[in-house]
Amino acid sequence: MTNYGTIPTSSSPSGSTSASGEYIARAKDRIKAGLGARRPWKLMFDFRSLNFAPGFGDALKRLRYNAAYFRMNYAIVVLLILFLSLLWHPISLIVLIVMLAAWLFLYFLRDEPLVLFGRTVDDRIVLIVLSVVTIVLLFLTSATMNILVALLIAVVVVAVHATLRKTEDLHVDEENAGLMTGPAGSSA
Prior knowledge:
This protein is mainly alpha-helical. 60% of the residues lie in helices and 3% in strands. A two-stranded antiparallel ribbon has the order 1-2.
């Protein structure tokens, strides 16, 4: 019996199609899980938890604590401000979009720690390296003034929020507890 001209109905797709479909499904799951790892925006912008610190030392403690606690949220805020500032510079915007893809895969969507040459790379190192590479590549696109103004605005927004946000109602999980302590494990 011949079956010329019929469309195969087997449920086993070809190798390349299943590999790309599996990759897309895995990427969707990683996006959901990665963005789920950030702190809730409602907690970050709880207006009842905003007030002035009693002193400069307390403000610095809040800044350090909140910078570690809301680290992923602050990275999203900085990248969003940078993106908005580059809307009228298409080449810079393309570079930023490419770097955002790198941010997604190397920082926001990773399930396991990044391993290079057999060594585990800390999230803070990945954050610093990606930030520096993004800024350097954007400076090479001749949108220097826009980038500097956007970064200044982003740093001010993050610093103001981090110093005004009370830390008493924030609970640290065991995984991030090391980020909240100062040198030699003393409380900061």
